[in-house]
Amino acid sequence: YFIILLTWILALSHLCLLYSPDLREIVFIIQSQNNSFHVRQADKRRADLLKQAQGLTKKPPVVLLLHSLSHNEGDWSILPLLPYLSYSFGKNSSWIVFLEEETNVKMNTLIQVLAKFDKNKDWFLGKPLHDEESTIIHHYAFAENPSIFKYPDFAAAWALSIPLVVRLANKVRDEPLKSDFTIDLKHEVALYIWDSGKGPDLTAVPELCTEPENSPQALYCATTLSSEPPLTRSLLDVKPCIGFFLPFALVPVIKKTWEKDALFLEYYSDHADPTIPTINLGVPNTERGHCGKTFAILQRFLSSAVPNTKWLLIVDDDTLISIPRLQVLLSCYDPSEPVCLGERYGYGLSQGGYSYITGGGGMVFSREAVVRLLNSGCKCYSNDAPDDMVLGMCLNALGLPVTHSPLFHQARPEDYARDFLAHQVPISFHKHWNIDPIAVFNKWLKDDLRANPSDGLNKSTKTEL
Asked: Which residues, if any, are the signal sequence (predicted)?
């Protein structure tokens, strides 16, 4: 009986392989970035995929790095790439699978998962996220019932069938993409695919997971998150960053939360106030943009007025940030490179636009980046111009990349999907309206080994730092 059972198991295994997609029919795209640290991480992920494929097929699958596909700045937003993907893989492939640098893939399991879906139909597969309430970062979409719309968690990987890629590519060709803001890419990609109900909804795939790779819950997952810390250098090599800060109406909150962790911190205004203390930069306060003041800060950073340090952090008065976690993240990067780090947004990416770091989540610059920015002669067109967008235009003109980290947040914790934050160790949040900022800091940004897992600080499930 044992021999008969074993024979049946082997026969079923061969049948599964017979109807499963050939690995050569799957195109993997790693959502990589043009920064030396991220290139190394993406190269490791590609090497792992190809190593797994060696045991399954004689010819390896196509594995592409997103940042190297073209010189078009907007290609990180993926939609402009669809015509290229359709032209290059529309005839000989069945699936395009997108994954992040930290996304582990179990190749055998993924093949079996994709075999459940008819490759000749339109499929949009992923781990679904949804909003608990309408949020500004999604332009208050689906305000009456925010949870009804599902969009993919990119960290779990997501996939498009080739027929859907071809159809979307034709749509991109026929109807040019709107030249407006790219804020939350995963939500905007899902909206474009859904096409006001004319396209497919996101199909939930339980095997696409964001569990740590070594957790018991990951046993049946096709994707998991890497549990290996991505640190490349000792924290001892990272000088604590300088924290600069623009308006100062909310100074009491800062003093009760993150100020004590900043080795060197300056507050700026249009007049000196020794009780805070603030520094007068000679630039008037403005109600909206802070471009003039931000460029004055950049100049001061390179002057003898402040200690010579490797990193500059600029935040708003209503930004909550974890300086220790930021130090851990900065240990991954080489400060001798022109690093511009934060939450990346885009403006007019499909029509020659640019990327920029949204200011509310915090903008981090290496000294080399500041030197190149100022040496370029780039400047504000007015003191109240949006500083983050002007800096983005300058970086784009210089050909310097904006490096994205999902750990910086332009909005409040309530504005993000609960499952999205569940596998993060966040670095910052922004905006104080309708919240207790000190309570938010203590729950989300203050490190406490005694924290309850339900507080969103369970380190065993946090893999991005």
From this structure: 1-18
How many domains does the chain contain in total? 2
286 lies in the same domain as 200: no
b/e 322-350 (16+ beta carbons within 10 angstroms → b): bbebbbbbbbbbebeebbbbbbbbbbebb
Confidence (pLDDT) at 199: 97
Q: What is the distance of C-alpha 56 from the center of its chain?
A: 32
Question: Do 217 and 284 share a domain, yes or no?
Answer: no
Residues 6+ apart with CB under 8 A from 83: 169, 172, 173
Q: Cα separation of 368 and 344, whole Å?
A: 19
Handedness of CA 145, 151, 156, 159 (dihedral sign): positive
- Residue among 15, 30, 21 nearest 105 (CA): 30
128-129 and 151-152 as β-strands: parallel, antiparallel, unpaired?
A: antiparallel
Residue 146, C-beta contacts closer than 8 angstroms, at least 6 positions apart: 130, 131, 132, 133, 134, 135
Alpha carbon distance, N-terminus to C-terminus of the chain:
51
Peptide bond into 277 cis (omega under 30): yes
The verdict on residue 8 lying in a domain is yes
Q: What CATH number is given to the structural domain containing 320?
A: 3.90.550.50
Asked if 154 and 14 sit in the same domain, the reply is yes
SS3 321: strand
Residue 60: strand, helix, or coil: coil
Whether 192 and 314 map to the same domain: the answer is no
Question: What is the residue-wise DSSP string for 219-232?
Answer: TT-SEEE--S----
Are both 407 and 272 inside the same structural domain? yes
User: Do residues 295 and 208 both lie within one domain?
Assistant: no
- Model confidence pLDDT, tens digit, residues 361-417: 999 999 999 999 999 999 999 988 999 999 999 999 999 999 999 999 999 999 999
Classify residue 108 by its DSSP letter.
H
What is the C-alpha to C-alpha distance for residues 73 and 67, in angstroms, rounded to an integer? 9
- Please tell me whether residues 204 and 92 are part of one structural domain: yes
Going by their DSSP bridges, the two strands 311-315 and 242-245 should be labelled as parallel
**Amino acid (one-letter) located at 169:** A
> How does strand 311-315 pair with strand 124-126?
unpaired
Range of the domain at 114: 2-225
Give the C-alpha separation, 451 to 43, whole Å. Answer: 35
pLDDT, tens digit, for every residue of 19-74?
Answer: 456 888 999 999 999 999 999 999 999 999 999 999 888 788 999 999 999 888 88
Considering the domain architecture, whether residues 426 and 367 belong to the same structural domain is answered as yes
Q: Give whichever of 192-206, 251-265, 445-459 has the largest mean pLDDT.
A: 192-206
